[in-house]
Amino acid sequence: LAAYGKGPERYGLIHADMRLANLLIDGGNTRLIDFDDCGSGW
């Protein structure tokens, strides 16, 4: 994790519940849904 860094470019939205039930797949496109558990962090 230390190699990943802590700079502002690494800070952002974290989904926190990524599983198959929260993916919409249409052809070659995949979309993530259900952001109830999301938050900000590294």
Word description of this protein:
The protein has 42 residues and is mostly beta strands. The protein has one domain. 0% of the residues lie in helices and 33% in strands. It is built from no helices and four strands. The strands form two sheets. A two-stranded antiparallel sheet has the order 1-4. The chain has a two-stranded antiparallel ribbon with strand order 2-3. The protein starts with 11 loop residues before the first strand and ends with a strand. The model has no long low-confidence stretch (mean pLDDT 93).
Quick summary of this structure?
With 42 residues, this protein is mainly β. Helix content is 0%, strand content 33%.
For the biggest sheet, the summary is: 2 strands, antiparallel
- Portion in helices: under 10%
Structural class: mainly beta
Shape estimate: elongated
Name the average pLDDT.
93
Strand coverage percent:
25-35%
**What is the total tally of β strands?**
4
Uncertain segments of ≥5 residues (pLDDT<50)?
none
Radius of gyration: 13 Å
Number of helices: 0
